[in-house]
Each structure stands twice: as structure tokens, then as C-alpha cells.
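Dear all,

This email documents one entry for the complex benchmark we are building for the journal club exercise. For each entry we list the sequence lines for every component of the assembly. Then comes the predicted three-dimensional structure of the complex as a C-alpha cell string, followed by one or two observations. Please use this as the template for your own entries, and keep the labels exactly as they appear.
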Amino acid sequence: MTLAPPSAPTPGIAPADRVALLARCRAIVSERHVLESPSALTVYESDGLPGYHRRPTFAVFPGDRAEVLAVMSALAERGVPFVARGAGTGLSGGALADGTVLLGLNRLKRIIALDPVARTATVEPGVVNATLTRAAAAHGLHYAPDPSSQSACTIGGNVAENAGGPHCLKYGVTQNHVLAATIALPTGEALTLTRDDATRGYDLLGAFIGSEGCFGVVLDVTVRLTPDPEKILTLLADFTRVDDAAAAVSAIVAAGILPAAMEMMDQATIEAVESSVYAAGYPRDAAAVLLVEVDGAAVGLDEDAAVIEAHCRAHGARTVRIASDATDRARLWQGRKKAFGAMGRVSRSLAVQDAVVPRTRLAELLTAITAIGVAHGVRVLNVFHAGDGNLHPNIPYDAQNADESTRVHAAMREIMQRCIDVGGTITGEHGVGLDKLGYMDALFTAPTLEAMCDLRTVFDPTHRANPGKVIPVHRCREWRAAPNARQS
Amino acid sequence: MARRAEREAVVTRADEMVLEAVRDATAASRAVRIIGGGGWAEAHAAITPDAIALPTRATAGIRAYEPDDLTITVGAGTTLAELDAATHPHRQFCPLAPPGTDDATIGAVLATGIAGPTAATWGRPRDLTLGVTVIDGHAREIRAGGRVVKNVAGFDLTRLTVGAFGTLGVIVEASLRLRALPAVDESWLLTDADAAAFASWRRGPYAPVASAALDEGTLVRIAGNATFVAAARAALRACGTITSVDPRRWHALRASHPRALPPLAWSPLAARVKTAFDPAHTLNRGLVPR
Ligand SMILES: Cc1cc2nc3c(=O)[nH]c(=O)nc-3n(C[C@H](O)[C@H](O)[C@H](O)COP(=O)(O)OP(=O)(O)OC[C@H]3O[C@@H](n4cnc5c(N)ncnc54)[C@H](O)[C@@H]3O)c2cc1C
Ligand SMILES: Cc1cc2nc3c(=O)[nH]c(=O)nc-3n(C[C@H](O)[C@H](O)[C@H](O)COP(=O)(O)OP(=O)(O)OC[C@H]3O[C@@H](n4cnc5c(N)ncnc54)[C@H](O)[C@@H]3O)c2cc1C
């Protein structure tokens, strides 16, 4: 058999265990919150990333914490693996359950507490990101991490993926906003992880965030809420050359201005957006547009915007305009936030990529990406968090077409290798999941992957939580040591 | 080019020597005491007295620095003063400002993980660390994280290392986030303050970069572009009497920080982490329970 990722085998469930567990789960969460028919499970066979399909043996949707813990204890008793799932908007195949039990957390959607004075909120894992911000709005606060999927994705999924978003350039990613979390270890034991910098101990909360469902299940999260800025200025700059736009990004970063967000879209993306219902008024003939936002105290903000505008013009921007009002700003942002959706419309499938490079290498990488696309006969659409160097080169294609699929994958592999070669990484926010397992060996040394696997073993000694994800299984000590583990 | 290769060879040799020292100590069932600048005696006193001294200063050096990326990679033995000397000419800095002096090494600052007064605005050590290379108790060289500002590949061993007091691994290299020096940066002493007015100033749009309560008043630091700082200063003045202060006052404050070792926060899960990375308690034995 081949040991190569990404096809890490997951152990199946013995039929007797399945029958017994189904009965136990129905008793815990009631009949209607357990799904097992193939038709009912169809939606749970994939996540936000088209192209991967895995069928869970059944899906169970607990309604509160006690039910989650009871289900997890039942799974633990029989040693059955499971995969936690929030809204299923993930873009790395992370929430797919291959013959294992799918544990849906989307019914746990209570905002447990919101303290406008302390500027914190405690929420259940199924609370949708944008719902929390809406609840905080009355107090002039918001939850800062704003993935483009914020109207659907859950806080539990955000914690598991350490999600980012356009405004993370200034405000930081999920990791910077979580103050505490109650988690359930795969044994069904609940514990609270906090952060206290005034003690001597390990940052277990920090280690848990971004663990992609492999360390346990998030039961509740306490997050920091951020005061709404006094004023926001959104600039749209358009360029006739992609390099110029990338150089402008580097110049703005180097000048020491920290915009709230700095996003870039190339010509192919602009075309997709402008041809869709999300048309934002981006100039269709531009090679690239930059969307730059500054926010904060009203006083002094115009100066920052002026510096940004000057850098854009110095790097060849044709026009730079500032959104006239909140409606105009929302329209400019809508084009950006719905860009993936607009791309999805132009083809059957969309290969979504997520890599980070040093910001000074952006122009070079964009040129290389175009060349790689040409060489493989595929069209790459770029829409990305330019201020962080976080690229999203996406390729629309037809997954039914075997030849085209092969070319798309070859192009993606080359793009990722280039990102690694310039000192970058293979994911800035979407996680490794299933999709990026095959790049892990190129990015990390063997002892580093083994150490990551060791950390996972601390939380999940029997590797039952989201098995086969994140770390190629041949890098784990236990797997190498146990010959039985190779049979499946 | 040749010079650069030579320098990298020297640097790698220093890292290798740390690895060999840990391997030898583990083989001999001995413990090692990791030393940065050696400036915090209280931390060293808590380590078992028969531990072999493991100095890390030789790893010092700027290993990669592209100023326009606002990131830097340094050997763990590099001091805060050396980091400033490399970055200030480019009008950049790393906002680490831990208790003690600028002779502290980056390895120690990250190992102790303690934040300075600017942490709430400019980030704590763990927020500023993009990646670390550590030698764990199995004498494995672990290259965690990376050099770019956003990265979710794999499990977060960087976060685990920062604040672990060297008990999970010896830090030999670190990549850090930098910031541009603010255009204007002022420190003020606020006296005769209207407490409510000051509290609301602090929570509002003029939130300061740092503030510290002293016997004689409140030390406040405001930074940003000239227009912003002028407005923030005017609003602060409305809260009480303000007097301009030498920014070195912040250094004095760091030096006078209490020296005692912070209390231990331990759990069965933490003990399992320790066992995974340093089962023989080779590293800084005595700092966490056995
Ligand atoms: C159009 C679009 C735009 C996007 N834009 C962004 C973006 O800007 N930034 C960004 O970071 N991401 C983005 N994403 C990706 C995705 O939305 C995020 O990864 C999000 O955090 C996933 O949340 P979810 O609730 O959908 O999780 P799911 O997809 O259900 O699960 C994701 C992972 O989290 C685990 N998980 C879920 N819930 C829990 C829990 N309670 N406990 C433990 N583990 C759990 C799962 O096992 C899985 O590994 C985008 C996705 C789409 C479709
Ligand atoms: C007056 C004073 C008060 C202080 N108060 C506190 C406090 O309250 N809380 C706190 O956390 N820190 C405190 N510190 C520590 C301080 O913030 C820095 O961590 C310290 O000054 C670093 O100096 P150093 O290089 O001389 O480290 P050292 O004194 O050499 O080492 C400090 C600790 O870090 C470990 N260490 C050093 N280098 C490494 C490495 N490369 N890898 C792994 N571990 C390493 C050492 O084993 C030791 O435990 C204080 C320091 C001083 C001088």
C-alpha cells in the first residue's frame, strides 16, 4: 500500500458498535437529531471546498453541553472516532467525516453573556460570527475577526481554524481575541483553558486554537469585543499593472501605516465580480484594484489616507477614490467579500488556495503564478489579503474533466512550492485539513511534524478526534511504532 | 556571499552545540540550566543546583532581516539592545519591553513570556512571535511556525514554547514581528486627575499605547501621527495636570519590577505536555513539578 498523503486511512466502525451507538445517541439527543440515511447525509459529505466528498457513518446534533458530553462519552467508551462540524464553510476539507461519526455543534447557539463594560462575550460554539457582532453593535462594539464567510461560519469553527479575515491586518486573527475556552477532550471530559500571563505555565489555550478539531471540541468561548472605530475611510485604487499594485502594498507596509485592511483583486476576479449580482463598480479594465481601509480616531485619519493615496499614485495608480458614505463603502466591500461566490458561478468547480509569502515578494509571486497558470493552461484568479501577504490564487475548472483536473492540481502544487521557496507558508487561515496534507512534508522537517503529532497525542491519546487530518500519518511516532495501525 | 555562508555556518554550529549539550545531558541523566543573559537570578535559583550550565549567548546574531517585510529572525542569544541596534536605523522596533534591562536575551524574554506595558496595544510576546526553533528534551530540533505574519499550518508549537520557561525546549532562534516607530511618541505624567474623566479618555478613541499608575501620578504614553497625538494630548490635559516626562522613565519602571518568580499554573494536561517533550526533566529541572 502507499504511505503517501493525503489518503490517510481512517478506521471504520464495527457494525455492532454502530448499532449500539445509534441507539445511545438517539436516546441522548432524540430521534430527529440523528441522521443516517444517505440522502439526509448528503449535505454533510462536503464542506466549503468543492471537490472532496466523504460520507459519515451517521451524524448527531446535540442541543446543549450536557448532550455533547454524553455523546462524546458514548463514543469514547467504544473507541469510535468523530469529526466536529460547525457550519461546514471550511475550505480545507477539515469537517469531513470518512466513515466516522459527525458531531454537529450548530444547535449550540446561545450567547451566554455579553459584558459591554469589560468588553467581552461568552458564546456557545454554534453562534454565527456575524450574529455576535450584531449583538454587540448596540454597545458600540464588534467581534473583530471577520472572515468573508462571517454570515455563516461559527465561532467554534473559527477557533478550530484560527480564522482570519480582511480586518485581521490591524486587529489580529482569532488567536488574538480569545480569552478563554471550555473544551471537551475526546474522552468527554470538560475543562476550561484560560490565559494568564502573570503565571508560570503552558499556553494550552493558545495551543488549542487552530487545532482543527483534532484536540477536542469547543463547548464555549470567551472573546474580546472591540470598540467600533470613530471613523472609517475606505479607498479604492486601480492599477494598470499587477506589479504596481503589489509594490504599492509593500510601500504602504514599509511606510509604517497600519491600515485596518488592505485587499487586492486582479483583473480576472474583477471581471467575475462585476459580472455577478455583487457588482461593486470596480473598473473592469483595471489589471488590479486595491481596497484599503483605515479606521480609528476621527482626528488624524485623513492624514493616513493621504499617505496611502500618495503611495498608490507614486506606484502608478490610475485613480484613487474614497467611499463617499457607508452605503458606498458597503458596496465596495460586498464585491470583495462575495468574490469567491462570484468565481464559483463561472465554473463547475473552484480550486481554492491559501498561502502566505513575505510582503516584499508579492509582485514576484504574482508574476510567477501567472506564468505557472499559462504553462498548465489554467486560469488563476487572485483575490487576497495583500497587507498580510496572504494569497488566494483560485482556479475555476470542471472537476468532471480528468485532464483539466490534473493540470489544475499540477499548477497548484507548483504555486505552493514557490510560496514555500520564498520563505512562505501553505495556509494563512483556511487550515491544513485534508486538502493541504500533501504539502506538510515540504514545509516542516520530520522532527517538527513528529512534535506536532506528540502535542495532538497529549490532547487526544487515541487519535479519535478528526483522524487523518493536519499531520501526515506517517510522521507520527505511534503510527510508525504500531504495525497494526497500518492495516485498514 | 562567502562571508554570509561563513556566518550561517557559525550560527548553525552554535545551535548544534545546544542540541549536543541537551543530548549528552539526557544520556547522562543530568539536567541542564538554560542561561540567556543570566540576569534574572530568581529564575535560576529555582532550578536544581546540580544542573549543567547551558549558555545560549553564542547563538546571537541577526539571521534574516528584510526591513520592508517588518519581520526579523534572530538567534535566541541576541539581546534586546542588539535587536534595537539592528532595527532602529530602519525606524523600526519590536515592542517587547519586559521587566529588567535591555541586556536580556530574546530567548529568555520569550521563554518567560512576560509582557511589558505596551502589550495591550502592541501585543504580548506570544503575539509578536512568528516562529521559533527549539531543542526539546528528546534533543529534537523543532522548527515551529515560520517567518511570515500569518500562518496556521500545523499545530501551534510556537505558542506552547513562549512562556514555558525553557521547560519544553531551549529556544535557539526566533522570528519576530516588527513595527514602524511612531511618527510622534510622547510620555506624560498625569496628576490631580479627575478619575472618571481619565477612565473615559482611556476607553475612547485616544486610548494610550501604555499607562502605569505610580505614587506620584499616572504615566501615560501616546503615539501616532502628529494630528492624532496633538488631539489626544489636548483631551488628556482636560483630565488633570500633565507634565512632559523623559521616555527613559519607562526603562526605570521595568528595572524596578518585583523579581520574584511568578506563581505556577499547573494541571494534569500541562503535566502530559511536559512528559511529551521532556520526559526526563532535563530542561530547567525544578521550574515545573516532576
Ligand atoms: C466564501 C468563503 C469565504 C471564506 N473566507 C474566509 C476568510 O476570510 N478567513 C478565514 O479564515 N476563513 C474563511 N473561510 C473559511 C471558513 O469559513 C473558516 O475556516 C471558518 O472558521 C469555518 O467555520 P465553520 O463553522 O464553517 O467550520 P466547519 O467548516 O464546520 O469546520 C472547520 C473545522 O473546524 C472544526 N470544528 C468546527 N466546530 C468545532 C467545534 N465546536 N469544536 C472543535 N472543532 C470544531 C471541524 O472539525 C473542522 O476541522 C471562508 C469560507 C468560505 C466558504
Ligand atoms: C528585575 C527583574 C524582574 C523580573 N520579573 C519578572 C517577572 O515577574 N516575570 C517574568 O516572567 N520574568 C521576569 N523577569 C525576567 C525578564 O523579563 C527577562 O526574561 C529576563 O530579564 C531575561 O534576561 P536574561 O537574558 O538575563 O535571562 P536569564 O536570567 O538568563 O533567564 C531567565 C529565564 O529564562 C530561561 N531561558 C533563558 N534563555 C532561554 C532560552 N534560550 N530558551 C529557553 N529558556 C531560556 C532561563 O532558564 C531562566 O529560567 C525579571 C527580570 C528582572 C531583571
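Observations: Chain B has eleven helices and 13 strands. Chain B has a mean pLDDT of 95.
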